[in-house]
Amino acid sequence: MYRFANTALARLRPFALALALSLAPALVLNCALAGLASQAAAAADSDWLDVEARIQYGFYTEDARTLADVVAQLSGPEGGEDPLRHYYIGLANYRLAAVLAAKDKTRARDAAARCVSRLDEAVRGKSNFAAGLALQSACLRELSNLTLWKPLANSKSTGQMERAVKLAPRDPRVLLLQALEHGDGGKIDSTALARLRKAADAFEAERQGVERTPGWGAAETYAYLGRGYLDQGNVLAARDALERALLIAPDFALARRLLTKITSG
Question: Which carries the bigger pLDDT value, residue 253 or residue 20?
């Protein structure tokens, strides 16, 4: 019986070898294509992280011209259907609106409106895009603070944020934007402070892994935590949070102003 089995196996080996050889080119091609796709995805992520870094630098240094330049460059005809392109045009406009809010409300309002429309495209092109929904909610809040149509903007903002939280309850950017329910310059109450602490924990967990797209928000979370603690009179906690913000983003003008307020007091 064993001799028969060995003989049968011996007869099958040439066929198995021939089959393996015939499949090998296809397997090699599939592996190569998978590798190229992975490299292309990594390269695309790297490109968007470079764009994000420029947007963030413009926001941290409160440089409206840099932010406007990013908006103009991204608004070209190439890659018009990419949800991330719409997302980052929205983010650049969101930052531009924040920088201009105290200086030029008309331009700030226009930027916030562009953010809302771009995020419409982003969430239409990518289902369950929690980061896009949360950012659109924030842009709607900003727009409501700059216009007279508050009820409509606030209603849609609340709905988009609720969808984002339901889709991604642990996403640090969703948590950050949810915490800023009164806007970037609004009051940070106890509810907002608790959400910011939760966002900070989520950012710390995220920073232990691979780089993500989008990946912004950690420095802002600590800066707004610092402002909230400062409003409460908790100077030690405020200083710690602001120093963390500046460790992540040394050019963050808001964090520097708040820290100077503590050190010069």
Answer: 253
Take residue 197 and report the two structure tokens written for it. 């602490």
For 211, the enclosing helix (H) or strand (E) is: none
Handedness of CA 106, 256, 231, 189 (dihedral sign): positive
Q: In sequence order, what are the residues at sequence separation of 6 or more whose Cβ sits closer than 8 angstroms to the Cβ of residue 70?
A: 51, 54, 55, 58, 88, 92
Three-state DSSP at 50 gives helix
Considering the segment(s) 48-167 as one domain, its CATH architecture is: Alpha Horseshoe (1.25)
Residue 151 and residue 110 in contact, taking contact as beta carbons nearer than 8 Å: no
Report how far residue 96's alpha carbon sits from residue 74's, in angstroms, rounded to the nearest whole number.
14
Distance CA 115, CA 15 (A): 62
122 touches 87 (CB < 8 A): yes
Tell me which fold the domain 169-260 belongs to. 1.25.40
Distances (CA, A) of 237 to 47, 205, 226: 36, 20, 7
Neighbours of 235 (CB within 10 A): 14
Residue range 59-86, pLDDT digits in tens: 999 999 999 999 999 997 765 689 999 9
Q: pLDDT band for position 212 (50/70/90)?
A: confident
Contact 169, 123 (CB under 8 A): no
Domains 48-167 and 169-260 share a fold: yes
pLDDT attached to residue 16: 46
Mean pLDDT of the chain: 84
What is the pTM for the complete model shown? 0.81
